[in-house]
Amino acid sequence: MISTENLKPFLENLLEVLPENYSMVDREFIIQAYQYAEEAHKEQKRVSGEPYISHCVAVAIILAELRVQPVVVAAGLLHDTVEDTHITLQDIRRDFGDEVASLVDGVTKLTHLPRVSRADQHDAELFTNNTKKDTEEQETLLNSQLARDRRRELANETLRKTFLAMGDDIRVILIKLADRLHNMRTLGYMPENKRRRIAQETLDIFAPLANRLGIWQLKWELEDLGLRYTNPEKYKEIAQNLAETRAERERQLKAITDRLSAMINETGIKVDISGRSKHIYSIYRKMIDKDKPFELVRDLRGVRLIVPDIPSCYAVLGIIHTHWRPIPNEFDDYIAAPKDNFYQSLHTAVLYDDGKPLEVQIRTPEMNQNAEYGIAAHWRYKEKGPKDEQYEQRINWLKKLMEWRQEVQDANEFVDGMKTDVFQDRVYVFTPRGDIIDLPAGATPIDFAYTVHTEIGNRCRGAKVNGKLVSLDYTLKTGDQVEVLAAKQGGPSRDWLNPNLGLVKTQRARSKIRSWFKHQNREQNLTQGKEILDRELRRLGLQNFDLDKLAKAFDYRSLDDLYVAVGCGDISLGHIINTLSEGQAEETHLFEIKPSAPKDITENAVSVLGLRNILTNFAHCCNPVPGDAIIGYITRGRGATIHRQDCPNILRMKDRDRIVRVAWGEPKHTFPVEIQIKAYDRQGLMGDISTVLSNENINLKDIKINVTHNLASLIMVVEISDIVQLSRVLTRIESLPNVMEAHRLNPG
Q1: Does residue 440 sit in the same domain as residue 543?
Q2: Which are the catalytic amino acids?
Q3: Which domain holds residue 694?
Q4: Distance between CA 544 and CA 485 in Å, rounded?
Q5: Do 222 and 292 sit in the same domain of this protein?
Q6: Is the pLDDT of residue 406 over 70?
Q7: What pTM was computed for the model?
Q8: 187-212 residue pLDDT tens
Q9: Which residues, listed in sequence order, are joined to residue 632 by a DSSP beta bridge?
Q10: In 3D, which of 228, 344, 347, 370 has the Cα closest to residue 298?
Q11: From start to end of 385-525, where are the E strands?
């Protein structure tokens, strides 16, 4: 037996929170893991100056509070040993067994690339080692678009591994969430830029992940800490308001609790009533979503009632609604219709005696444990029966979710898809047979078809919603009954992959569509891809663009390989257009890796390379916009006039000494662009075009209309922000009925 005399404070704190049902053998096992981790990390310190073992213990304490198995707590203590010390996985397996080794290996695999929090450290090392460059050049290197993109890619690759690991062993994710929570608790020691980035990532990914797994205990703290560092002013404002009103809220809740207890006890129902704490982030979301100040957020005071069984839940609900008037549209029955994370409870809001709202939650002890601990509650109740059906449902959901995600190799695409498919608000629709299909908000009939079956998705040609024909870009709503109209054979349309058309919302559907096209022969994909890309560049007025550089930018050996990738859907037009825009913002030569000179961003959104504080203006002959390849011409008394590189006027310039290199900076305003629309004339055509422009917040400066033999030609000058927006609005105009084409007019 390991002696526990003279235990160190860290270990004492851990032992105090271990679940009561842990045996003496379990406790000795955890003490052994602590001593092992302490020895391995003995020379290491955190940014705060604390011994590194403090982080390991903090992670283990969070896991112990979830009351998970002892092996998970031990793995939490050891989770960084293989990555950060001389300890090997074989050492862990020899000393702690296969199960602990597997969990530590799972966490380590998430971090084979630099961790999210360590991506900046890599750049810092680059900065330190590059002694030949002066300070200004180093700062330019670290703050370059390339460095930012690399950090994002590293972060997303780590997140991709995290998501994929969910399907292997959910306990790995519990350790990862505990690790992230403690890192957030100590985030104040990080530089501000890192604090904001890590906090935003926590709000985008890890807090929703905890919510999806039903672990409320972790979710709310991750959200509050995330808000604290992403919007410190608003966090402080809400925290101060809560502090100022706390005494009065507590007095009111005591009176409310006493009255409810007396009322319900009279019926013979045993009830446990507690005030429900309102978290800062949830108040913030209500203030934002409903555009209300703090004073008008209605559910700042709430109570939670725990009753023995489900019939008692509804009985107590009836008592409350009998005594106080329910607030319309504020009742939710999550017992009969659980949330997609298996959360169950009755929610209602009533007008209390003082005329102010009171929010009430009613649930059983099992529901409460599940709400607080989510998937971790499985281990709290494991001894009650051989099989936990909810746990099995969650695991099956994770496995099904990850099966098709194995096909997505691009980390950025993967993470964006997770945000859409998993973490977004949900809608629940019905098949004709009455089966419920769970989809992200904004999903379309095509998304529905692919969720039902891949073949149904491939052959989808139309849809009926609630018995009526709808377009394929129809946005599904909760309660809709959807019937897919499928052809006997055939495949999907390439237009479905065009993000500007809004036909497909889910990553699952996009992956299945791309997979279908991948199985077509190379020549067909090459022809189709060339046609798609050439048409888009022609439409945007970029015919003279160097496509070989574009292929190299996407790491393809030849232009044909790029065409094939576009043809089969591996690369979307949206991705290409975004790259064009980002690349041009980086420097004039679109895809050079390093900037040729430090950039001095001016208020006119253009920098003149090598010159500071020079006045710039845009040439009216070619009207360049962000994303265009541009060049500057020094004009006496007017600074540098910015032209497109293919502008006929700039090509005819004889005084080449006055031509200077320029680059796009951060756009501060919009840019006038001349576009032409050809269509069959019809009533309402101009109104539909105006609607498209209005939805994009695009201002129309000028228009010329010519109608000949029912053929309309419209030449419009519109103000756009960049090439991406131009591509999107042209696509949407072309999708209008009777419109044949829409393109940008070339200069000259």
Answers
A1: no
A2: 83-84
A3: 671-744
A4: 43
A5: no
A6: no
A7: 0.53
A8: 888 888 888 888 988 887 788 778 77
A9: 642, 660
A10: 347
A11: 426-430, 436-440, 460-465, 468-470, 482-486
